């Protein structure tokens, strides 16, 4: 197998460079002379995560698709700590990303099964207040493309990045209490009545009708003449303001034809 570098990272003081190679080895190099100092052995699959400690120049974290997370002392070429991400009944979970906290006392990782793993010193009581399952209600909504090839949310016919802040739900789609909804950026200062999502029945692309959290009215509701909620009014007002700003930006940037579908153009 031809060796290929999959990731590269400098340590905190830039004296060392660590490279991850597709033969599952990590190599530590002197960044000034290019001399190979250590081969770090432990991973059994490709490594795509290399994170340096925020202030300790000796420490480097690595994680990969084999589910292993290592803390290395790169000056000595030795393992300091090791964790294997075993998931009961499902084998191991590949680790996709890791980040240190600014104080260097904690680090967080995400895996292929949607788990957030938090490691560090101190008590874990503060994390126990958060529900085990947290999803956005829009996470698995189907998408479509309009005539201009722009991506739209199938249910609301809006560009996903212009939709209102989503609601937090569990794995079955049940909304969490309002105190958790305030954790969503954009909902921090909403009144309680605006943090209670509406439940409705939505037809999927396969024709199956499922219960789903909806954050605004659908076209069917408009046609039936149903009275809009306060949240719907806020969403429509924000959408109108966004459309006006987008239109003004387009007019000042270009005199070309505007998008007849009402879909905002990308910069």
TrEMBL record:
Signal peptide: none annotated. PROSITE patterns: WD_REPEATS_1 (PS00678), WD_REPEATS_2 (PS50082), WD_REPEATS_REGION (PS50294). WD repeats lie at residues 1-39, 40-82. GO terms for cellular component: nucleus. GO terms for biological process: cytoskeleton organization; regulation of cell shape; regulation of transcription by RNA polymerase II. Residues 240-261 have a biased composition (Polar residues). Residues 240-267 are annotated as: Disordered. Keywords: Repeat, WD repeat. Pfam families: WD40. It comes from the Eukaryota. Gene3D superfamilies: YVTN repeat-like/Quinoprotein amine dehydrogenase. SUPFAM superfamilies: WD40 repeat-like. InterPro entries: Bromo_WD_repeat (IPR052060), WD40/YVTN_repeat-like_dom_sf (IPR015943), WD40_repeat_CS (IPR019775), WD40_repeat_dom_sf (IPR036322), WD40_rpt (IPR001680). This is Bromodomain and WD repeat-containing protein 1. It comes from Eudyptes sclateri. The gene is BRWD1_0.
